[in-house]
Amino acid sequence: MELYGAADAPVPDLAAVLAFCPGPGSGIYKCHITYDTQGRVKAPVFAPYRPRRVKKLVCVEVPHLDYSCKWEDRTALEAVGAGLGGDEEALILRNGLVTDTRYSNVVFGDGCRWVAPETFLLPGTKRAFLLERGRMECRPLKAEDVKKFRFCSLVNAMLDPGDVVVRTEDILLP
């Protein structure tokens, strides 16, 4: 609500929006729903979902990047990874602290537990779900702390811990 500036700003009923929208058919799809500050909704867009193959994370320090809401305009966020290879993804740092990638939260594992960085660009629904259920802990993580773990997993609404994993030796630190 703070984004809209008023507690009574209209927020669309997303279940109702989808009830009047024919689904895309079989398979796994992601759905993009865009709405404005008056609650007006653009037509939902469905796209086939295929997780990216990420083999390497490259730490990029971006102290002033704001992605506190899922903005439709992702230009600044996408620019962070300009020049990366097809199997590389940016691991975004803010003042030396680990946050997220351009499209996911991150969790670090040692084979026994998952640890999420306390700092993030976007809180993420899957991140919140996992924290609420005690499936991971949360603490401050500096860039140099990532080497204390065996691997990093990308997590978002479509990805569970373990779905996309990068070994910590394949994380390029600043």
From TrEMBL:
SUPFAM superfamilies: D-aminoacid aminotransferase-like PLP-dependent enzymes. InterPro entries: Aminotransferase-like, BCAT-like_C. It comes from the Bacteria. This is 4-amino-4-deoxychorismate lyase. It comes from Akkermansia biwaensis. The lineage of its organism: Bacteria, Pseudomonadati, Verrucomicrobiota, Verrucomicrobiia, Verrucomicrobiales.
